[in-house]
């Protein structure tokens, strides 16, 4: 005779205030209810006030004609275009100065950070003085300073400096020759593709070297790609190689491309200010590497430059990348100060839009959404890169 063991039924869980799981659910529900009530109150109160003042709401104004000009534009734009395209122009201008600023601040800040640790007394002290002075002056004042320097120390168009054929420097900006037609867009696309190809090729070459020990001449191949793909882009564009040379007409220049004083002042201020913070991040990252790594690299007969590039910086990156992300985000958000020097970024364009349409809430929401998307994109990319270079423990 076999005796079957029957499992006893699980005891019923009684609702009790002393149950921590129950309490956590209640607290979370209360917080969610409070947040929901606050959001409902703000939205309903805003809609009521707008209705009482006969102010329309919504984003329908984006499809109306803008009616104002924008001094700089990465894409074709006229005052007859819509507010939607005007805001897109402002967003592209913000992205342009942010991307160029991040690259330039990284390069200059890294040089400064290494210079602060130089064994040369003068180099280390000059780099240290630069970092301490620039970091402690507000960015807005620096933007005013660089704008004044650029606009007041350059001559007018008729007395413009003419160092090279087709190159003119005046208080209207730097005029440069450019290609006719859409060749420039195709060449820039080829350049972007070349950069991506070089990054992928470098990753593959590193894996190949680890597996086989064979070194790929990456420098010469990268140079060929950087030159070849833009040339292929020009060939595929079907445009001629005719150059649009700028020339003086009346009281201003016409033709060619322009690097405006506003863009130059904004870029200079952002790069020089952010590079001081980047220098401190790089310096602290290098100093976090154990002294024994320097001694081990020196015992192999490596020069100081090769020690930094091959041994120290790859290890310091694990300390450098997280705070560097914050500096990239700060530079992107600080670009909103462009309105102080007249550069038409997204904040400037949206301000003009809401002054004409009265859609203040919608305009502020557009600005917030734009910076949120850009900042989150930078954070996601930098977090991905940080995970790639993180030490993998066995």
Structural description of this entry:
Its main location: membrane. It comes from Paralcaligenes ureilyticus. The protein has eleven helices and eight strands. By secondary structure, the chain is of the alpha+beta class. The chain has a domain of 198 residues: Orthogonal Bundle (MetI-like fold). Strands 1-2-3-8 form a four-stranded antiparallel beta sheet. A two-stranded antiparallel ribbon has the order 4-5. The chain starts with 19 loop residues before the first helix and ends in a 5-residue tail after the last helix.
Mean pLDDT: 82
> Kindly, what is the distance between the CA atoms of the first and last residues, rounded to a whole number of angstroms?
54 Å
Anisotropy-based shape: globular
The biggest beta sheet is recorded as: 4 strands, antiparallel
Strand order of the largest sheet: 1-2-3-8
Structural class of the helices, strands and pairings? alpha+beta
Helix content: 55-70%
Q: Identify low-pLDDT runs.
A: none
Feature tags:
MetI-like fold, about 400 residues, two-stranded antiparallel sheet, 11 helices, four-stranded antiparallel β-sheet
């Amino acid at each position: 005779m076999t005796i079957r063991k029957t499992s006893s039924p699980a005891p019923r869980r009684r609702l009790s205030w002393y149950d921590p799981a129950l309490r956590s659910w209640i607290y979370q529900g209360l917080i969610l209810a409070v947040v929901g009530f606050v959001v409902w109150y703000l939205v309903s109160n805003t809609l009521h006030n707008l209705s009482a003042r006969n102010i329309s709401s919504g984003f329908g104004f984006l499809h109306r004609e803008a009616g104002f000009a924008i001094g700089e534009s990465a894409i074709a734009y006229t005052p007859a275009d819509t507010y939607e395209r005007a805001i897109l122009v402002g967003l592209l201008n913000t992205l342009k100065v942010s991307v160029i600023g991040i690259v330039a601040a990284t390069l200059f800040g890294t040089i400064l950070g290494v210079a602060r640790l130089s064994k040369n007394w003068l180099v280390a002290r000059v780099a240290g003085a630069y970092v301490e002075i620039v970091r402690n002056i507000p960015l807005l004042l620096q933007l005013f300073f660089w704008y004044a320097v650029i606009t007041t120390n350059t001559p007018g168009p008729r007395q413009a400096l003419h160092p090279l054929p087709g190159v003119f420097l005046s208080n209207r900006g730097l005029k440069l020759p450019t290609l006719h037609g859409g060749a420039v867009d195709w060449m820039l696309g080829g350049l972007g593709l070349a950069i991506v190809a070089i990054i992928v090729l470098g990753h593959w070459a590193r894996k190949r070297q680890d597996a086989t020990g064979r070194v790929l001449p990456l420098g010469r191949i990268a140079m060929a790609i950087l030159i070849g793909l833009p040339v292929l882009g020009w060939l595929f564009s079907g445009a001629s190689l005719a150059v649009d040379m700028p020339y003086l007409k009346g009281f201003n220049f016409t033709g060619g491309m322009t690097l405006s004083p506003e863009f130059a002042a904004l870029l200079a201020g952002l790069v020089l200010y952010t590079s001081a913070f980047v220098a401190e991040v790089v310096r602290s990252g290098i100093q976090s590497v154990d002294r024994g790594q320097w001694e081990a690299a020196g015992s192999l007969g490596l020069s100081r430059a090769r020690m930094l590039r091959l041994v120290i910086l790859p290890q310091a990156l694990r300390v450098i990348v997280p705070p560097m992300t914050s500096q990239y985000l700060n530079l992107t958000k600080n670009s909103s100060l462009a309105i102080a020097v007249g550069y038409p970024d997204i904040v400037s364009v949206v301000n003009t839009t809401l002054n004409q349409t009265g859609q203040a809430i919608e305009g502020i929401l557009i600005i917030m959404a734009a910076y949120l998307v850009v900042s989150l994109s930078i954070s996601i990319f930098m977090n991905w890169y940080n995970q790639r270079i993180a030490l993998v423990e066995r």
